[in-house]
């Protein structure tokens, strides 16, 4: 049965955050340097409110959020990211592995700590918390060094439901997030997992985005399926059919 994406985000939040004297802590399971965006320091957080059937995150992490990784305060995460950036010379930071906007006070405090570091921060999100919490986008607008990439799961409600198992109407939340970010002058662009989409549905998405803002349609980034071994197992399990894909060692440089 389809799940409600908002309820699931809120339920996951309880499992992967906790209050402490050091503020709101969040579970993380890895800190690493990654090749995307030309090189980026990455902290992998635990927990997402969607269950995308093409997600590269392992089942061990996705289905056991309360047993994976350890709790870190915003200060712990900021120190680690800054230290890794300093050592590697990389100038970009991000959170990945889960949905970074879960645990708003954790993220906002982390951004506060990173502000002024002269590094940029890419906030990759499915957008759902930014849609159901109307204060989120105005609060993000205080941090001018961030850029938000809202990753749309398919081009339509039906594709969203097929790709995530969530209720089809939850797709609208992803577009609402983009509306809120634009209204609040937060630097952002949409990306879309388009490997499962027809040309027609991609065209319809561009039109929908142009209604929100022409700049969103112009800057739409196309994401394509990467066939990591666990992703292949997942899409086989769900019998998903796709039109385009890459193997991990054969990704075109312009996609990295
Ligand atoms: S929104 Fe991202 S992290 Fe969450 S399940 Fe989907 S692909 Fe994975």
Provide structural commentary.
By secondary structure, the chain is an alpha/beta fold. It has one domain (5-255): TIM Barrel. Helix content is 39%, strand content 22%. It has eleven helices and eleven strands. Strands 1, 2, 3, 4, 5, 6, 7, 8 and 9 form a nine-stranded mixed β-sheet that branches. Strand 5 (92-96), helix 4 (104-114) and strand 6 form a beta-alpha-beta unit. Helix 3 (74-88) crosses helix 4 (104-114). The longest helix has 15 residues, at 74-88. The radius of gyration is 17 Å and the shape is globular. It starts with a helix and ends in a 10-residue tail after the last strand. The model has no long low-confidence stretch (mean pLDDT 96).
Q: Count the beta strands.
A: 11
Rg, Cα atoms, Å: 17 Å
**Whole-number count of domains:** 1
Given helix and strand content, the structural type is: alpha/beta
CATH superfamily: Aldolase class I
CATH class: Alpha Beta
- How many helical stretches? 11
Give the overall shape, derived from the CA principal axes: globular
Small ligands present: iron/sulfur cluster
């Amino acid at each position: 049965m389809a799940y409600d994406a908002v309820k699931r985000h809120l339920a996951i939040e309880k499992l992967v955050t906790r209050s402490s004297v050091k503020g709101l802590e969040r579970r993380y399971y890895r800190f690493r340097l990654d090749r995307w965006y030309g090189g980026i320091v990455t902290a992998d957080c635990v927990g997402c409110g969607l269950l995308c059937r093409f997600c590269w995150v392992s089942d061990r992490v996705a289905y056991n959020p309360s047993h994976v990784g350890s709790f870190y305060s915003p200060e712990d995460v900021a120190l680690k990211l800054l230290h890794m950036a300093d050592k590697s010379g990389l100038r970009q930071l991000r959170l990945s592995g889960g949905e970074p906007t879960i645990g708003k006070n954790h993220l906002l405090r982390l951004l506060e700590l990173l502000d002024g570091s002269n590094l940029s921060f890419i906030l990759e999100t499915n957008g759902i918390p930014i849609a159901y919490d109307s204060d989120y986008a105005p609060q993000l607008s205080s941090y001018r060094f961030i850029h938000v990439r809202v990753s749309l799961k398919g081009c339509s409600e039906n594709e969203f439901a097929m790709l995530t198992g969530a209720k089809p109407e939850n797709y609208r939340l992803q577009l609402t997030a983009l509306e809120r970010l634009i209204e609040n002058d937060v630097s952002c662009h949409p990306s879309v997992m388009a490997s499962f989409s027809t040309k027609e549905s991609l065209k319809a998405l561009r039109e929908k985005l142009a209604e929100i803002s022409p700049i969103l349609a112009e800057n739409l980034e196309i994401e394509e399926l990467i066939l990591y071994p666990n992703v292949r197992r997942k899409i086989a399990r769900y019998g998903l059919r796709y039109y385009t894909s890459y193997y991990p060692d054969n990704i075109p440089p312009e996609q990295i």
